[in-house]
């Protein structure tokens, strides 16, 4: 489980760094640990394992503009289940909404599923992995000068996953790419 928590949430560390400011004190470490714990899988009475639903709201600043970012993850009974050696898992839907703070207009709204990333996935990942999380990527947003999100498609309860970068420009997805800058990218 510790391996799973560490691997699954390199994305959360980037997000927590934005929120916490990277000063490294113990209260920030506790906050990161709490976020990781909340995302651990839980079993239901039906035997289908589901990740906990999560809702996050944060203010982000990109290229001199302020936005409110809302990311809501929920297990979806309507998506195909994923069967692995460790059990049957529910896949997730993640709704992302970005609002321009200067005029309160919605500049981006989309619900992501694993299918969004399908063209980048091997058959093994298409059939045996789930959409695990999406967070704001402050470093890439700063260097790209556009809103950039980080996403993770992973095998449940394992350390195998593929990180993605999602660039958003002019209210649409301008690109989705595998995050090749991550050292632990699994070989397909």
Keywords:
single chain, 188 residues, alpha+beta, 4-stranded mixed β-sheet, 4-stranded antiparallel β-sheet, 12 strands, disordered N terminus, disordered C terminus
SSE layout and pairings?
Elements: H1 2-8, H2 10-20, H3 26-38, E1 41-43, E2 48-51, E3 54-62, E4 65-75, E5 82-84, E6 87-89, E7 92-100, E8 105-112, H4 123-128, E9 130-136, H5 138-144, E10 147-154, E11 161-169, E12 172-178
Parallel strand pairs: 2-6
Antiparallel strand pairs: 1-2, 3-4, 4-7, 5-6, 7-8, 9-10, 10-11, 11-12
Helix pairs in contact: 2-3
Give a description of the structure.
This protein has a four-stranded mixed beta sheet, with no helix packed on it. The protein has 188 residues and is an alpha+beta fold. The radius of gyration is 16 Å and the shape is globular. The model is unreliable at 1-39 and 182-188 (pLDDT under 50). It has helices at 2-8, 10-20, 26-38, 123-128, 138-144; strands at 41-43, 48-51, 54-62, 65-75, 82-84, 87-89, 92-100, 105-112, 130-136, 147-154, 161-169, 172-178. Helix 2 (10-20) crosses helix 3 (26-38). The chain contains five helices and twelve strands. Strand 1 and strand 2 form a beta hairpin. 29% of the residues are buried.
